[in-house]
Predict the 3D structure of the following.
Amino acid sequence: MDEDLRSRHTKDGIRIYDPADFAGMKAAGALAARILDDVAELVFVGQTTGAIDDAITKMVEEAGATSATIGYKGYKHASCISVNHVVCHGIPGDKRLKDGDILNIDVTVIVDGWFGDTSRMYVAGKLPRKAERLIQVTHDALMIGIDAVKPGKTFGDIGHAIQSFVESHRMSVVRDFCGHGLGRVFHAPPNVLHYGRPGTGATLEEGMFFTIEPMVNLGRPETKTLADDWTAVTRDKSLSAQFEHSIGVTADGAEIFTLSPGGLFHPTYSVG
Ligand code: MF3
Ligand code: CO
Ligand code: CO
C-alpha cells in the first residue's frame, strides 16, 4: 500500500512520522546545513548574490541531491538571498554586496525524498552594531521557539515564546510569512506562526516535522512584495533578519535536523 495512505495525520491534518523517518530528515537537514557552512567563505564585499547561488546549485548537484526551490512555483534558483530590508524570498542576482550588508541565505534540498530547509544570517565586511543586535535577537528567538517544543504544548506556545522575546527587545515579528510542516513534501500543515497566545493552536505530538523560521524587523512588522512577485521587503525599509531550522518533535522535546556541522549557525563566528 502507498505509504501516504497508511500514514497517520492528526485532526488538524498534521502528519505524524515514524521513528525511522527521523534518519531521512537528518540526512537532508545535514546536507542543507553543510551547504550553508560552505557558503560562508563566499560572502564578502563585492561578491554578487548570483555567484553565491551558482555555488549552491553546484554543491547540491555534487552531493547527488535535488534543489527543492528550482522549479518550485516558477522559482528558478537554489537559494533565496535576502539582503538588508529584504524580509525573505530575495532573488539572487548581479547586485554586489557592500560593506555592512547583512543577508539571509535560505536553502532547501531533497535527499532520498526528504526535505531539509534551513537559513541563517551572514555579513559582508564589518557588521554594524544595530544589525548585530537584530541578528542576535532573531537567532535567540528561533532557539527560544525550539525550546518551547514538547509533546502536549501547542503551536501557540511556540509563537508566544518567540513574539514576547522579540517584542521585549523593541523589535517586531513579521506576520505575513510563517514556518511550515515538511517531510516528504516542502510545505505542509500546519502554518507555524511566530506570534500567538499560549495554549492556542494545534497540540504538538511526537513525530511532527516542521520548520521554525522567524523573521524579525528593527522597525514595523508590515511587508510588501515587489513586482517580481517574490521579493518581500519591510514597508518601512527597516532592516530584517531570519533564521530557520527544520525540526522533529521527540518524546521530550525537539531534534534539530539542520544543525551546522561546523558550529557556524550562530552569527558571531568570523570567517577569513
Ligand atoms: N525555503 C523557503 C522556506 O523557508 C521557501 C522558499 S520557496 C522559493 O519555506 F521558491 F522562494 F524558493
Ligand atoms: Co521553510
Ligand atoms: Co527556508
